Every structure is written in C-alpha cells, then in structure tokens.
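Subject: for your reference before the review

Hello V.,

The reviewers asked for a structural picture of the protein, and I figured it would be easier to keep everything in one thread rather than splitting it across files. Below is the amino acid sequence we used in the manuscript, unchanged from the supplementary table.
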Amino acid sequence: MVEEWPGSELSDEELDVAYNVRRKAGEELFARHMARYRDESARAVAGLPGHPGIVYDEASGERLDVWGTGEGLRPVFVFLHGGYWMALSRDVSSFMARGLYEQGVATVVPDYTLAPRASLEEIVRQVRASIAWIHRHGREHGLDPARIVVGGSSAGGHLTGMAMVGGWQEPLGLPGDVVKAAMPISGLFDIRPITRVYVNEAVRLDVERAAALSPALLPAEYRCPAAFVVAENDGEGFLEQSRSFQPQWGAGELLVVPGRDHFDVVCDLADPASPVGAALLGLLRR
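And here is what came back from the structure prediction:
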C-alpha cells in the first residue's frame, strides 16, 4: 500500500533529521554555499558563447539558457537545479558551463516554476518540455539532440529521475532513449517521505501523489547509463535514497564523494579532473 514506505515508521523529527540538509549545514555555511553558486555561475558564463533566456515552454513562459556552444553540434548537459522545488534558478546554476565548454560540451540550464506557484506535476511537465525543446530545436543552437545527458542536484536529482523513467516520451513525440545518460546528484527517488517534512508546506503532496511522482515506483523500459552521486556528509535520507535506487536501476554506478556535503558536491561538476566531473564526461563520451 502507498501508505507504507521505507522510513514510514520514523517519527517526524527523525525524518526531519534525515532530510533537512539546510538545518544540518547551519545558516552560515548554507549562505556561503548559495553565494558560491551565484559567484561561480557568473564567472563561468562571462564572455561564454551561448543563447540565454530562450522560452522553451509556451504554456508557462519558462526559459532556459544555452551556454558553451562552438563549431558544429555539441553534446549537451542539461542541469536541473535543486532548492527542494521551491528555490534557486538558472541564474545561479551554470557554474559547470565553462569547464564543460573547454571539454567540447554545451550546457543547458532550464528554469521551472517554483512551488507553491506550481504543483510538482507541473514542474515535472516543464522539465520534460525542456528536454523536448532541446530535441526539436537544439540543432538551431549548436546542440546535438542525439547526445543529451541530464543531471541535477537534490530536487533536481528527483527531476532527473523523472526524466529517466518511461511513459512520457512518446506523447511528446520523442524517442524512448532521448535521455542518453543521467547523473542525479543527492537525488530523491521515492518522495513519499517528503509528505512528512517541512518541504510539504510548499509542495503539498499526499502519499498517493508522491508515489505517482517517485522514479523508484515508475516503469522504465529503457534504462540509460547513469552515475548516482551522493556526498559522504549528505543527509542520511539522501544517502539512503541513492543507495537504494542505484541497484534497482541496474544501469549505473554509485559514487559517494568523500569530504563533500549536500550543497558542495554539485560544485565538482565544474572540475573535469574531479571524480564527479570525470564521471560526467564519461557519460557524455559514451
């Protein structure tokens, strides 16, 4: 039954400890991480060739940025930002764009309407629409629609999972393998625990809807290669989510990054020599 899920026996306080990574970091460290996202993103795209601010979804008016285009068509990394579906934006989420550009890879960073203005179902629809836009219009902007790799951090890791599963591609006229590989970072794959933590004040899920929006509970005929990344010092809930879903997916590796926490592990995407950066390039070059 959907009412029973791993961890459902925990108290609300225990669930908060497992999933409230902002509280675990503390406000001072959290603020430093957010400033780092902003500053490193600004430096990464300064003077970088690209096409910022493109409307990818007429229904919502949401936009995406294309960074790091060059000669010919480039493989594309689609980065879905975190923020528990209710914070952050594409403006502070392009810190990997310059490093990938130097490796011959373009970066696409979509915005999506944040909760509670949008339901989680609508956020998922928008993310999938951004992938459809790349497949249909990428060539016009230097992107190779046959080489799309999707990744994201935290809530963005959940949204990556929702792009990995099946059932949504055909209605949008896309091939089942439109996402060639994926890198969820500190992802959420069974989001039923969210119904009992503070985040639910914004996303307003019940257990049945949470189950329907959980990649771990959805079918996937095509299982793309994936790297499941999580930080050694992540929230215990996030660690357990990746440890559980990676073997279930069965087409990827689990990478636990030592010395990193929930908020800084994603910054390693900007360094091609780091284990995270190297794993991403490996997916892009398969």
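For the response letter, the relevant points are probably these. The mean pLDDT is 96. Residues 27-45 form the longest helix (19 residues).

Happy to draft the paragraph if you're swamped.

O.
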